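Give me the fold.
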Amino acid sequence: MPRRNRDSAAGTFHVFTHCVWAAPRLYRDATDRIEFLRHLAVVGAKVGWTCVAYCLMDTHYHLIVDAGDGVLPTAMHGLNLRYARYHNRRYGLRGHAQFERYGSRRVADGGDLLTTFAYVARNPVKAELCASAHEWRWSSYRATVGLEELPSFVDPARVLRCFPWPTVEPAAALRAYVEKR
């Protein structure tokens, strides 16, 4: 049975990968994670999508991206291919780095965006890699809530606009929303 066509119309998506099949982890150290983030920045600039958030786990990653019409499949192919080539070269492996194709889900509205953002930010807590989302170094969450400098390729404005400035300070409201869950 042929695979179903992916949703490639313009919109905001939660994108995620599946566990690695050929290696114990997709990211074995900080060098791997930095290299992936470099590829994420390059691909994002090339295809013109907006990375709203990212979180790199040990065996997979999560992205929230705003992508134009037809951009998501092209960007994901480029990102995963670039990283697989790096990963395979570094560890003497061949083939795909992920177990299967990436998954993606269209984010419906502002409420769905907040819920999805909190899920992505809290993924390391759920996996027991840290006690609180702000402790995880390999996520854009820390920068989004003002605890460190924002990477140049991440634009969290869309998620921060879910909180009504000037009634509340958006980064503080987002941090309270994520960390109380």
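The CA atoms of residues 57 and 147 lie 20 Å apart.
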